[in-house]
Design a protein that fits this description.
81% helix; mainly alpha; membrane; 0% strand
Length: 313
């Protein structure tokens, strides 16, 4: 009975974490879109602001005794921080050098690459049913981006590097929490300032620092307030990402990412009257079918695992 109550409580926490991530992720997409369209704030600099605000948010939580930091050697998390910077840089370069359709198609490859990395290097096994759920999801992404897929050498290289580094980052977020025996807040408390420092070094290579469009440019008060609000929402996004991966897996988070993409498309259609073709509607249905199948098979496997443990003498 106690095990059932614990399991129910754990599932409720996971659902709550997914809900926070869903709402904050969708919210930040539309806030950032507003910032880019109306203020022209640079993309990578905005990510830097997000991580600085995330660290400040965690510092405030620490001072309010929400969590206790755990001393971590920098060398144990430096690759995690670097992989985050690589993920930001390469996904931006992929977006700059590819069409939106090609960019989205490349992002869909993150899930199978995560499964490959975890199978090869972490000896984690995935059932055939779980692997087959990737088929409708990939088909859905292809249907969504079919008319906008155009390949070129430089764009393909950046897209491939973006997928690889993003996959490593998501795998390491979960692996480091278990390896270092820390929770999401404790790990992010150290990774956020480290990643901010690395990002500060690479931002000048991609974006201006002063003048129009630079971080030290003449921004209006409404622009700065909106950017700050975006940073607060990003704090919730970053924290929930770490929490979800630490309590489920990188694959589950990635599946949830596909779901958020579908919701964002539907939200854009309903709120901003963005065009939604028949192909895109079919793609959304295929993707959602794959996600629902993954969720169903994952829950069945968890129940079977609990039953086997209960039957052991």
């Amino acid at each position: 009975m106690a095990d059932r109550l614990f399991g129910f409580s754990a599932n409720r926490r996971i659902v709550a974490g997914l809900l926070v991530n869903l709402l904050s992720s969708i919210c930040i997409v539309f806030i950032n879109k507003w910032i880019y369209v109306h203020y022209g704030f640079p993309n990578m600099t905005l990510t830097l602001v997000h991580f600085v605000v995330t660290w400040l948010g965690l510092y405030i939580c620490h001072k309010m005794d929400v969590f206790s930091p755990k001393s971590l050697p920098v060398r144990r998390i430096v690759w995690l921080a670097l992989s985050f910077c690589g993920f930001v840089a390469f996904t931006n370069l992929s977006l700059q050098n590819n069409s939106i359709g090609t960019y989205q198609l490349a992002k869909a490859m993150t899930t199978p690459v995560i499964i490959l990395i975890q199978t090869t290097y972490y000896k984690k096994t995935f059932s055939t049913k779980i692997k087959l759920t990737l088929v409708p999801i990939t088909l859905g992404v292809i249907l969504n981006s079919y008319y906008d897929v155009r390949f070129n050498l430089l764009g393909t290289v950046f897209a491939a590097l973006g997928v690889l580094v993003t996959s490593l980052y998501q795998v390491w977020v979960g692996a480091k929490q278990h390896e270092l025996q820390v929770n999401s807040m404790q790990l992010l408390y150290y990774q956020a300032p480290l990643s901010s420092g690395f990002l500060l070094c690479i931002v000048p290579c991609f974006e201006p620092l002063t003048g129009d469009g630079g971080i030290f440019g003449p921004w209006s008060l409404p622009a700065l307030m909106t950017v700050l609000f975006s940073g607060v929402v990003a704090f919730l996004v970053n924290l929930s990402i770490y929490w979800i991966i630490g309590n489920t897996s990188a694959v589950t988070y990635n599946m949830f990412g596909h779901f958020k993409f579908c919701i964002t498309l539907i939200g854009g259609y309903l709120l901003f009257h963005d065009p939604l073709s028949l192909n895109q509607a079919l793609g959304i249905l295929c993707t959602l079918a794959g996600i629902l199948s993954y969720t169903h098979f994952k829950l069945v496997e968890q129940e079977e695992g609990k039953s086997r443990l209960a039957q052991r003498p």
